[in-house]
Amino acid sequence: MDAVQELPDRELLTRHTQGDDQAFAVLVRRHRDRLWAVAVRMMGDPEEASDALQDAFLSAFRSADRFRGESQVTTWLHRIVVNACHDRLRRRKVRPATPTEDDTLDVLSNERLGRSGGTPDHASQTEARLDVHAALETLPLDQRMALTLVDMLGYRVEEAAQILDVASGTVKSRCARGRAKLLPSLAHLRNPRPPRDVTTGRGGADPS
Amino acid sequence: MTSHPDVEALAFFAEALLEPAEERTVAHHIETCATCAATLDELTAVSGVLAGAPPVPPMPRDVADLLDRRIDEAVRERAAGSAAPPDAPVVPITRARGGGSRRGFNGMNLPRLMMVAAAGAVVLGGGGAVLNTVLSSQQQEEAGSASAPMMQDEDAEYGEPEAIQPYKAEAVSSGTEYTSEGLADQAAGVLAAPPAPDGDHSPAAAEECATVFAERQGVRVALVDDATFDGAPAMVLFAPAGDDTAEVYVVDPADCGGVLARETVTGP
């Protein structure tokens, strides 16, 4: 067995397209933990992440010969995973059982109220995670995916842009819109007392 | 500025996305408005909350095994040389684990996936209407006529500009198994005899694929065929190109961006 494990990504992909039976599995194993994290963050659920990764890996397996080498193999793999997640999220959106935005937010505030006796501990961490996920669910997919890559997973804007196949400015504006939308439901997690708008409609408080 | 910038404007400001004039206005406003300065801080906090989510646990063993198995299967299929391997449905990890209900999916996941995996069952709209849409950008009402003229870019009478602008590609599923070599003939065949409506399935994926592709490539997609290409699921998009021709693009449904193959076909 030659050192398949040592080969660079691109070489593995080439070998795969030439009929090598091992190369693709090696390539995927090399990157699957990162791709798993991406899928879990995108889908918000490990089971659905598993489904999406199956879609993605099979799609990559079949379309490897169309990889044109314009990007890193990892970027290409990310793109395929992200697209597979996107397809599933989109389908999920039309699922009849999907709660409306209002329902989601109601559930959120109820859960928060119900547990308000507790101290900031494990329970509130779980709660925060639920909050984050449910809040993300209320965003348009484009914004959600951009924010997931940039803010949650820490990809640079340029990387996210390549993965999503859009311009960097587009990623930035999707993130900005998403953050603005998330502000009401998430800011409290960091900032327990939202500032009161004492000067509604007027140009600002005294500088000091 | 006499009123507060809205939250989105502040978020754009934080990303330096505002036009210079507006940016100056907002910057000036923030200097004197504690409320908006606080909102700006909160926007940063939103990013912090997202970044602070607990790390994703490593891929579970059974998921890793399942993925390995799927790849093994794909390798074997390829080795067996089946020209059009059946697109096996996704195996839900709970099923692979031997039980349990899938949270949030109410058990409807698998059938839906099989439907999608069947790669070729998305239909909406009628044959004649579809053909007209593909062949004619001016919405000529020769209902169902297979000889309706193609869109003609230059010398056509652009009577109604808005007839060109907003459109939605017709989504069909011809069941055609397109191949690299046969693409031209197969596409011409579909163009000549668009499939009958079926109506059982949601064409949303195909339509969206057409929309995404049209936006990215700046073309007008009139018909999208949810089919297979060289054995893998593919969307085949038809774009009127004038002179009785249509450009045919084969794209990966997972992506809807990259063109796998391209062909120019002449109308019937």
From TrEMBL, chain A:
Taxonomy, superkingdom: Bacteria
The answer, when asked if Transcription is one of the entry's keywords, is yes
Report the residue ranges that make up the RNA polymerase sigma-70 region domain in this protein. 27-93
GO molecular function terms noted in the UniProt entry: DNA binding; sigma factor activity
- Record bears the keyword DNA-binding: yes
Q: Keywords in UniProt for this one?
A: DNA-binding, Sigma factor, Transcription, Transcription regulation
Q: InterPro entries, alphabetically?
A: RNA_pol_sigma-70-like (IPR039425), RNA_pol_sigma-70_dom (IPR014284), RNA_pol_sigma70_r2 (IPR007627), RNA_pol_sigma70_r4_t2 (IPR013249), RNA_pol_sigma_r2 (IPR013325), RNA_pol_sigma_r3/r4-like (IPR013324), WH-like_DNA-bd_sf (IPR036388)
NCBIfam families on file: PRK09643.1 (NF007225), sigma70-ECF (TIGR02937)
For this chain, the family text in UniProt reads: Belongs to the sigma-70 factor family. ECF subfamily.
Q: What is this protein called?
A: RNA polymerase sigma-70 factor, ECF subfamily
Q: Which organism is it from?
A: Nocardiopsis flavescens
TrEMBL record, chain B:
**What keywords appear on the UniProt entry?**
Membrane, Transcription, Transcription regulation, Transmembrane, Transmembrane helix
> Where do the record's region annotations for Disordered lie?
77-97
- Domain of life where this protein originates: Bacteria
List membrane-spanning regions. 113-135
UniProt name for this protein: Zinc-finger
InterPro entries given in the database record: Anti_sigma_zinc_sf (IPR041916)
